[in-house]
Amino acid sequence: MVELPVPSSERTLALGEKTETFVTFWLGEFYFGLPISEVVEINRKLEITPVPLAPAYIRGIVNLRGQVLTAIDLARRIGLDGENAAEYNLIVRDEDEDKVSLLVERIGDILEVPVESIEEPPEKIEGMERRFVRWVCQLPERLLVILHTRELFQESG
After folding, report:
1. What's the number of domains the chain is made of?
2. Is 13 inside a domain boundary?
3. Helix, strand or coil, per DSSP, at residue 105
4. Which of 38, 77, 94, 126 is the most buried (most CB within 10 A)?
5. Residue at 106 is within a domain
């Protein structure tokens, strides 16, 4: 199991400023985040057992201390092109407390972001399906794309 990174201090927050905290990670050149409340743990390369006839974005299942979880290739799920070298299993849960392993390339920081800098996503997002994007946040040197966990768990229609 990988320890969660120490919070990033990209800028000093004002005393009493409302913030949201995200676990961040990379898929290709994209920088993503998930609310920290939805992340259970991070593991490096759990063994994946393929599942026949599963959708293309489902890599298979993983055994996490006796609990069987679906392993989702996050890049494929959200519509990113290209093959990613998934190194980490980001274990997340949805509102119903169901857990899933999201396969990501690289883990970033724990990032505390001022609420007023979090915005609705634009209508068109180049390179991925918009329905998976909950919010965006322009950081000083890059854009943080905050994913919508509930949509990731939904069946494709």
Report:
1. 1
2. no
3. coil
4. 77
5. yes
Distances (CA, A) of 110 to 21, 25, 57, 126, 138: 7, 9, 26, 25, 16
Q: What is the pLDDT of residues 115-154, one digit of tens each?
A: 999 999 988 877 788 899 999 999 988 999 999 988 988 8
CA-CA distances (angstroms) from residue 93 to 35, 39, 53, 59, 84?
11, 7, 24, 18, 23
Full-model pTM: 0.83
Bridge partners for 118 per DSSP = 137
- Is 47 a domain residue? yes
70-81 pLDDT per residue, tens: 999 999 999 887
We report the CATH number of the domain holding residue 86 as 2.40.50.180
Q: What is the largest CA-CA distance in the chain?
A: 53
For residue 83, give the amino acid letter.
Answer: E
Three-state DSSP state, 110: strand
What was the pLDDT predicted at 127?
75
For residue 112, the model assigns a pLDDT of: 95
Residue 70 in domain? yes
Q: What gap in Å lies between CA 136 and CA 147, rounded to an integer?
A: 9
Task: Report the C-alpha dihedral over residues 6, 11, 16, 22, rounded to 10 degrees.
Answer: -40
